[in-house]
Amino acid sequence: MRLVVFHYHDRPGGVRQVIARGLPLLVARFEQVDEVVFLLGEQGDPAWLGELSQRLRGSPVRVVVHRDFGYSGGEKQVVGPDAMGLLQGVLTGRKTLVWAHNLSVGRNLALLRLLPEFCATAGARLWLHHHDWWWDGRWARWQDWLAAGVSGLEEALELSLPVGPHIRHWCVNQADLAWVRLRAGEAARWVGNPLPELTFPVKSEVGEAAAWLRQQSGGRRVWLAPVRALRRKNLAEAILLAQAQTEPTCIITTGGPSSPAEVPAWQVLCAAAARHHWPLVPAVLSGDESLGGHPPQRSGRPWHPTLPAFFAAADAIVMPSLQEGFGLPYLEAAALGKPLLARTLPEVSANLSALGCQLSGTYASLAVSTAAFDRKAEQGRIAIRWGHLKQALPAELAAAAEGPVCVEKAAVDFGCLTLEAQLEVLQSGMGPDFSSLHPEVPFWPENRRGEGWADRFDVAAAAAGGPDIPLPEGALLPEVLRRFRGWLEHPLLWL
What we know:
six-stranded parallel beta sheet, 2 domains, 18 helices, Rossmann fold
């Protein structure tokens, strides 16, 4: 069997980690894979692919790259004849399974439309692996759907979840499964994400990482935020929590911005932290000092400790995110026995519960006084941004929305503020006493930590295909409306 792995690119990130950890497990589970083909829109890291190829039980590896398989937008909504020829070449000639990642994030609508049809014609099976959705805060992409000739939101949702006897849908989040099944029925399953090798790093490496972290924190206790510099990570809240602690605490983050759109907000946060001497050491593993990074050095030379070593060396892990995918850092904290302080997120909680992991150091919101920031200015900022956002929304959502969160109350959740208001709260020193919030070690029994990820893929059923279940009229739209109203409460998620 030929196993075709599609992703838009091979840049570092969550999807690449899933492919790197999961592909060897899938190849071993199938046992009859005699060729692996990577179908990419761009290739920038041959070393990563080479390293991964060595772990594939001797299966030959081929890489097919064409820009029409990558990100597209605006007027470029086609898969050209040469790209279609390449696609036909990898789908025909033998039994083929396509493991396609994040097509429903809407970054290549032409391919999303074309691939299910090409697979059906070629007799290939198609596994659509869903990590994210284009409607989860990526409303700027709605113009791409309109440019592609889509008439409305319901049609876009149907196209996002194609169905057919040759198609399976694999959901990263338990919270997604019920409503995806409204469209795909039993052809949709939850698989979660493959776990890394959760082994404790060697003592000497942990000691070196701990010494370096303490040096960066000025001797203060270290709370590690193992995240990229994204607005949805809500990192100003981590600073607020650190400031409220009775013991001096420093926030250290690992990643930098992953897209140009995130750079301005990140630079503003880093500049404010430096100006006011807030306890933040940003982006220690990004290597980009121009974006606030503090790449580790030892004896004057760059040094690259592993992330597990940083986990093990930190005093605690902090995750104040407003939106998360699967929740891997929570499991890593549990496996390494590290205390964790995190916002309660329903999608993460459902995934962890399915794996037997229970969180205790969590909170639903952080109420701050509206006297701690300029309410009138915040109302103006939110109104302006809501006006811009409303113009970019599908008509169905713009009509259904009641508007942005109100800041007229005496207190408001810190996560419901813009970054500007969050910085005003930090500067005011009027944050409530959150010292009672402490990181706690998640409970994850040893007997529930076995991998088992590849076993969640029903290989036999996938080989036979699944039911061709039509979408009940309007079935998906109510769920998207519900998610949208919750998402609207957090301006940090707006684009």
